[in-house]
Amino acid sequence: MAPPEVTLQSIQAARERIAGRVRRTPVLESETLNTLAGGRLYFKCENFQEGGAFKARGAANALFSLSQEALRAGVVTHSSGNHGAAVARAARLRGVRARIVMPENSSAAKFEAVRSFGGEVFMCAPTLAAREAMAEQFIRDTGAVFIHPYDDPRVIAGQGTIALELLEEVPELSWLMVPVGGGGLASGVSTAAKTLRPSIHMVGVEPAGADDAYRSFTSGKLTGNAHPETVADGLRGALSMRTFGLIREHVDEVVTVSETAIVRAMRTLWQHLKIIIEPSSAVPYAAVLENLVDVRDQRVGIILTGGNVDLDALPW
Amino acid sequence: MAPPEVTLQSIQAARERIAGRVRRTPVLESETLNTLAGGRLYFKCENFQEGGAFKARGAANALFSLSQEALRAGVVTHSSGNHGAAVARAARLRGVRARIVMPENSSAAKFEAVRSFGGEVFMCAPTLAAREAMAEQFIRDTGAVFIHPYDDPRVIAGQGTIALELLEEVPELSWLMVPVGGGGLASGVSTAAKTLRPSIHMVGVEPAGADDAYRSFTSGKLTGNAHPETVADGLRGALSMRTFGLIREHVDEVVTVSETAIVRAMRTLWQHLKIIIEPSSAVPYAAVLENLVDVRDQRVGIILTGGNVDLDALPW
Prior knowledge:
- The structure is a homodimer.
- By secondary structure, chain A is α/β, with parallel strands linked by helices.
- Chain A folds into two domains: 8-54 and 152-304, Rossmann fold (3-Layer(aba) Sandwich); 56-146, 3-Layer(aba) Sandwich (Rossmann fold), CATH 3.40.50.1100.
- Chain A has twelve helices and ten strands.
- In chain A, strand 7 (175-179), helix 8 and strand 8 (201-207) form a beta-alpha-beta unit.
- The A-B interface holds A 26, 28, 32, 47-48, 52, 267, 270-271, 274-277, 307, 311-312, 314, 316 and B 26, 28, 47-48, 52, 116, 267, 270-271, 274-277, 307, 311-312, 314, 316.
């Protein structure tokens, strides 16, 4: 059976499925940031999400979409970031095993996060090939289900639930800005937002050092990130055919920002919103701060994707 | 005319007076922090208050309690911290001049905060005597009204409004913990909370390096802080007769915490709540983290007083 496509309906179903299993996160505003921007900025705070990142949504939707029978050998994924912890958490809620393959050079905090949710950590060499090989072996040997971090319609639909909440809370949004890494968030959110509000201006923002979405979007041909280099470690992944297709359909504009702009934006948001966000979260606001987009008189939703930061290694 | 005493009624009146002029701040919880503590902790986030600190409440109540006639020469205060910016902000809302006397060694961010609200900064030598002398001269020369940071019933009543909001949102609170500096917050909050809920357990927490409230509370005699030394720069002040009296009447327990505990608590709150708080805000939670109080099975309100931190000089 082919997995269902991502639609407003599948996102609405995801929302019901994950209700009570993830948080409805708050939306923050700051007078100072509004004045600086010349428009109204509404920050959707997924840094307050369970596990500290929006990934909780997609993982919960994936795990609760699957039958107990399908899940009898548990789930497996590979991740150096927030997705691993999110899958471990969703698996614990679902009462099944989670094997998380992690590069041996992941930070202590990331290992700790996966383990704190009862996930079983398996270390591998720090290459994509090694991660995929080890995950595939688990799938073959145990029959565990693979939960991809973004190339999965259930995961994408879960991330799309953010747009439903945000548009409910701020119905008058005229713009919506999201960071783009592998494109799961951008796909889900843009599908929901554009279906509900065809006139909304959807903007994806990417670090210039990992600009595959920009190049793919501009050329019309899917291209990868050969050597991603950015402080926004959640955005080093590259689009898949599926996320590229959804983004082409629903996103109006893809913008890239410099490393300096990302760090400056992160610091500005810490200072004025008084919240902790990770570098990837600061990427859309970086485009506003650098005047790469004109948001004057717009009502702009900005998704802050996560707040998992090493407090001993801040980028300024 | 003697200023009115602080009562539940004056605090309720303050709430109406400042409504729309300060924020109703959110209350945050964290599963991890609850598990660590063995009780339920409700964090009242005054770091999200206008100007980044609870001081906005007392200043707004003071300014809007005074007639235009009384305010014709504006207001004056001295402050190295959040009170100066709060007075500047309230004065702007009220449409009157604010002169803020500040020690010349205050941080650039503090000067900037006062100026951003239209306050006029006057620098003085970094001693209490110099601050008081300059402020007194303005009062004498101009007829401006002095707004004391805490030894003022209107300021105390303003700070007390935090307790009204918190008890409305979490009526089942059994404990309430606040940091103690000059005692304005502790006085107002404890007056409101104990009047509404006589059974609530009120705890004041102080840095061991500025423990005048602890010594005064224990000995029954008001004593000062000769040489306050603490990272919690908002808590270096000493109780006045007025705040000491209110605290003796309404607070059940005063606890002191070490500098190490304060920094550890601050970091733990940053990490798990994903919010930015200043060291003074972490002081009550430090007592929980160090097991200096037994909050097991309690429902504990904790007031996080502010979020104005120098991001280039974190204490870890």
